[in-house]
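Q: For a teaching session next week I want to show students how multiple molecules come together into a single three-dimensional assembly. I've collected the sequence lines for a complex. Could you give me the predicted structure tokens for the whole thing so I can convert them for display?
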Amino acid sequence: MAREQQLTKVFVEVADSLIDDFDLIDFLQRLSERCVELLDVAACGVLLADEHDVLQVLAASDEDTRLLELFALQYDQGPCVECYRSGRPRTNIDLADPNASQAWPQFTPAALQSGFLSTNAIPMRLRGRVIGALGLFQTRDSTLSDADTALAQALADVATIAILQQRTLAHSETERGQLQYALTSRIVLEQVKGILAERWQVTPDEAFAAFRAYARSHHHQLSHLARLIADGEFDTDQIPRSPRHR
Amino acid sequence: MISDGMAEVLRLLQRDEGFDAAADVAVLAAVTLGVTGLTVSLATGGDRAELMWCTDEAAGSFEDLQFTLGEGPGPEAVRGDAMVLVPDLALVRPERWPALSVEAAGLAARAVFCFPMGIGAIRVGVLTLVRRTAGPLTDGQVGDAQVLAHALAGRALGSVVPGPNGAAPADSADALLHAVVHQATGMVSVQLDVSLPQALLRLRAHAYSSGRPLTDVSRDVVARRLRLDLNGNGDGNPLPVSDKD
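A: Of course. Below is the structure for the complete assembly, covering every listed component.
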């Protein structure tokens, strides 16, 4: 598909989601997948700062625990942390460059070990404040052009808008409240991955795949369904354990 | 970034010098947050809440009232998993909290700010700040209050409060920020057929007794290299553990 067509698809998806009741984590995950396609990168993650100024993964293009842990490693070091602190994008960072392993001694080898050659971090900004970062990884020797970076920034802005848009309560919800709700939703999802993994004797990744397939096909919001499961208010036997992957 | 005042509150909280000291810490927290008083209510299952902190009668009365009526910013924060900030109670439309709007008129609370305490689906309680005068919290005060609520949640779940600037002991509330710990909590809750907070306590007890970081223990649980038994012990690792519950 030509990039223009892909972009059109993304805009339609975004518009559809934001005018309706949508699930933030699911939306951000789809957005991460689109980032991978549009920017021709191998992996993408959306990281949001919590109340301790620690970056937490809200969603990633691939829910593989290994990738999530790589993003999570950036809680105190890595390009996303620097991008979050400076508010400026960091693009085309060569992970094989000795400077990279010197600057981020834990993050860099872990990223290389996962097969990534370079990485990028794009700030998520909200009215002059930085609230998180978009992390992009490449496995091939390719660079992001200025146009790619501008597009990545636009997608990061869409992610920010989505976070603020997720729950339009009738009351005076604050932006910080929205951020808090987003982070809490993600934690509930991780707890539920564990619950389902143990009930079904599968890995958390497999449990999540089955859970998400069920939620999507039954038009449940991921976060809402996760909450019901965590509270013991949903019979998880209703969820088929081996979803069709294709 | 948390303020110096809140860093001091967290430091005192960590020292944990008994009930009287806790009362002083609560008062200091209220001063730091620029409010008249505050309460910390712990969810004890069902709709009942237990007051852990209460700096003064006005704050206590307000807390009692909203939990008796089952409506107000506190219950709303707990149910909605997000803070509820009310800079001026007089400006709240009566239909939002009908009973509270009638009853609260006689109380010395003009601004109320509620911060849920919890970790994902684990709801621990709520931190409520009360001020006699109207007006919003500053952005810094909101951040401080969030950090305090998290520290209190970790404490209620048997953990150590993180030090200022993220400096923390090996087994700390910081560990409660890792996805693998949340996954392991979910798994243990099913293995032992206990609630999520109890599962987290078992994990913590095991980490403590085996002298390993909570994140490492959690990774082993998720990879199924470790399975906790009903006493919180791992297979082939029969260390005696005295469980609190």
